[in-house]
Amino acid sequence: MNMHSVPAIADLPRFSLLGMRAIIFEAPGAFDLDNQRRIWAMADIVSTWPNVREAVPGMTNLSVLLLKAPTDPSDLGAQLIALWNSGVSKKVDGRNLDIPIIYGGEGGPHLGEVSEMTGLSVDEVVAIHSAPIYPVYAVGSHAGYCYLGGLDQRLFLPRRSVPLLSIPGGSLSIAGHQTGVSASAGPSGWHTIGSAQTVFFDPNRLPASLLSPGDTIRFHPEKVLV
Fold this sequence. Notes:
This protein has two domains: 3-85, 2-Layer Sandwich (Gyrase A, domain 2); 96-225, Beta Barrel (Cyclophilin). The protein is built from four helices and 13 strands. The chain has helices at residues 33-46, 73-85, 111-118, 122-130; strands spanning 14-17, 22-26, 52-58, 61-66, 96-104, 134-139, 146-148, 164-167, 171-175, 178-181, 186-188, 191-195, 216-225.
């Protein structure tokens, strides 16, 4: 067989155990909406399978939490791969939210650095970042945090070489091909360019998380501080 005809591991669906009572399925391909829709559909279907306590969609992956250790993990993994290969997909008509953002200032300390690294002016960074409508791909990392698609390639940047020990809840950051708003205080290796007053997670609210997969966000520049 020609070496070029053999798919790379990254181009194949795969699975691995998470302890004794969980398994993670990792999808191949790009971090895009089409693949996420397939993950959402898988989550709905897998959650109905025997011995499944919960199926949690992530960024082109699916964590399957089990009631008891599987007798044959490889069989469960094969079922997940077969389900992915079936091409199931789910379109979600979620809510559209407009999130006011103060770009720069104390709540966006890295806006100037992002401007320098991208070769764009501060105003251009803000205009480019606030232009898209961002789909919510998954909710995770910490309670209420959303992984978003749709960041403009001109703002793709590597993570910071030295992470910050803590950024406040509501911090708007970018790294790699993603952007997101922290729902609570915690460490971050991303570039923080703004802040929001929106409460993304409230344990006394039903549902506690403001956003769900399939919702969309538009960041509205309320103010730009330099």
